[in-house]
Amino acid sequence: MANVVSQGAQESGTRTLRAEGALKAIAVDHESPERLRRVLEQALVFAGAALAAVYAPSEDGELLRLMESAGVPRTLYGLRDSYPRAGRSPAAEAHRRGQPVSLSPAELAEHAQARRVPSRDFFLTALPVQGDGGCLLAVTEQPDGFGDDDLRCLERVADAVAFTVPAAPAEAGELPPSAFSLAMDTGRVRVGDDLLDLFGLDPVEFDGRVETLLGLTVPEDLPSLMSVVEADHMSIGDRELEFRVLQPTGPPKWLRLRGRLLPGGEGHPVQLVGTVVDVSTLRSDVTDVARVQRLAAALATAVTVRDVGRAVVAALRRPLRADRIALAELESDRLVVTILDPPGPEAWPELWRSEWRTEWPDAPVRAMPTLAAALREGRARIWPAGSTLERALAEVGPGGLAVLPLPAGNRMAGVCLIGWDTPHDFGTDERALLTACAGLAGQALVRARAFDAEHELVGMLQRQLLPRSLPRLPGAVAVARYLPSTAGLELGGDWYDVIPLPDNHVALVIGDVQGHSAGAATLMGQMRTALRAYAVEGHPPDVVVAHANRLLMDMESDLFATCCYVDVDLEEGAAWCVRAGHLPPVLRYPDGRTDIAEAEGGPPLGVVSRADFPMSPLRLPPGTVIALATDGLVETPDSDIDEGMEHLAERLAEAAPTDMGLVADALLGNAPRSDDVALLLLRYDGMELRPLRESWTVWRVPQAVGHARRFARRTLRSWGVTVDYDAALLVVSELVTNALVHTDGQVRMDLTLVNNRLRIAIADASPRSPVRPTSIGWEATGGRGVLLVEALSATWGTLPVSGGKQVWAELVLGR
Description:
Elements: H1 2-28, H2 35-46, E1 51-57, E2 63-71, E3 82-84, H3 90-97, E4 101-103, H4 105-110, E5 123-128, E6 135-140, H5 148-162, E7 179-183, E8 189-191, H6 193-199, H7 210-214, H8 222-229, E9 237-245, E10 253-263, E11 269-278, H9 288-300, H10 305-320, E12 324-331, E13 334-341, H11 350-354, E14 362-364, H12 369-377, E15 381-384, H13 391-394, E16 400-408, E17 411-420, H14 428-464, E18 476-483, E19 494-501, E20 505-513, H15 518-536, H16 541-554, E21 561-569, E22 574-580, E23 586-588, E24 594-596, E25 601-602, E26 616-619, E27 624-629, H17 631-634, H18 641-654, H19 660-667, E28 677-684, E29 692-698, H20 704-718, H21 725-742, E30 747-754, E31 757-764, H22 784-792, E32 795-801, E33 804-812
Parallel strand pairs: 22-25
Antiparallel strand pairs: 1-2, 1-6, 2-3, 4-5, 5-6, 7-8, 7-11, 9-10, 10-11, 12-13, 12-17, 13-14, 15-16, 16-17, 18-28, 19-20, 20-21, 21-22, 22-26, 23-24, 23-27, 27-28, 29-30, 30-31, 31-33, 32-33
Helix pairs in contact: 1-2, 1-5, 2-5, 9-10, 9-14, 10-14, 15-16, 20-21, 21-22
């Protein structure tokens, strides 16, 4: 329980720190007209508020006037545009007392200052803003209201508001460069110098009449501007719209007006204040027909579901000035969301966050019946601000929501959700744009889904041809990465392998078969299997590669392959490298230096039947990292392969080899995906306990077995072995006798001791393995040696070694 409490406290503290960091970042941008709104938005993100608003004293000091708000429309909670400072409203009481005031739904319903009882239950908290800056009102619909952590975040927001609330506009004095102040009763307007530049007017010649500015706008945009200027038909609050201004030459310029109607006596508007900025670079001057054409062109080249989503977002969000947009595939009864813009989970409803799976949410359609009905009907649906919707959808677009089912033939392929935070007016041109885009996106989504499914199948086949896992090595750590090409659906021919060998050796193999096809992938699997088989047989590195070259030549394939083979002795810290037309290894030494190994190379496999593949030695001090890669990591159409190798060495030098997985991910961070990429890394640490080894050549003389026993006895005594002495000598006798009787040629005995495990290995020139007899009669004169070895040893077996075999047995001494 104590751990749970500690973890909760740590999370709450982290949330408060994140809020402080976000507010400090906003405070740096002093010139932004959106600064106050962005501060209030932090109350929505970190305190779970549905609405945050700031009220500041009026010029005469009698009222607290609404300066800015963020979140759902305040009319849903019955909040006014102004409150008397001497009244009993929560805003006025918090301002006068200098202390927070919190009210529950029941207390709010009984409050004398409530104009009406809202249709929903909510908690309200008012916090004073320091420096006579008014107060901060925050509303939440959470079942328990604002918690302690939420209140701490609200206090941080209130402190930030104290430095952000703009001063009330005065009749005299200069305005900010892009600001304006319009007297609603006289039509006189005061403007900043930058605003006059946007209209192309000389400050000396401007007559101060709003009609002069309106006369310079595009006639089609004049009605929307007049709806702002003529305040008789409007309520107090925020106003925002975009309009065009005629230019002497060229297309009209797009401007964005953001303002607020300030109340006067008895709640009537008397002044419109705000800013006008140039948004020509944000809004291209194209028609809806051109936007549909651009979307069709983008979807024609979109091959994956993610590509389709990005094209739809680019075509719709900015022209519609939407706050969020989501594209989801419909799979059975679930919406698998593939694109969220913005991508952060904090910008999306709580239900979506609770259904968060990995990178994207997986939302159930049954939780949103309105959405399910729209999908059944198969036509675009639009809900303006204040519409009654289930919470999961209402929070996507509190200022307006558009739902676009994406048709594909006689079924629905998915859905696109577009939401606005502030009230949005849907015009007929926007409805036509949404309908046209939905049909295009649906067809593209079906094509992309088929491509993704085929690409996943190709990737699965590719992974089946590569090692499922890498072995654990004594004194070393190996990791590997493979990235398939994103261009097309062909199978690649890159491969890698890590092959444990006897006597604490390990073979690192990386290669690349020419081309991208099923034939290349098949040949890759064959070459990987052949190299592993030749390595396990015990051949030296040059012989292993030469055998693989001869095999590929005998297969009469039109393809060739490159390969780099490194045999690492984990006991001695040494390695032998053989290259067949492949990139050399890159070494990173313990002091951080990197070196591209100067290893001699032979031709690619499958080109020349009688080719030499020289071996190059490598020294590996403990802590050295060996990096093997295919050309897809270091070569692009725009860069030379030598430059790519130098860049790989630089990145390897910068990486910390403590976690080899992180090193591999860092090296692949900016890898081009026009070709397959394979990467194999090994960090040599050195063996903590090196085994004891001795070898003896058994001559074919009458006393050969006795000589072998004496050598084994002397060796074990020198190693300090005192237990299971006779058992070890008996195993030596049986294995040596078996090799002398049943084989010809040289016989070699190897003894290895690691901890308390003794390994006895007898190598001969015969490929035949000893057979364990199923039954032995009393009259039989042989066949009992294998049974004795099996009874005395913990395990035994045979290995192929260069045309012969090795019979070995391991004994656990003192068991």
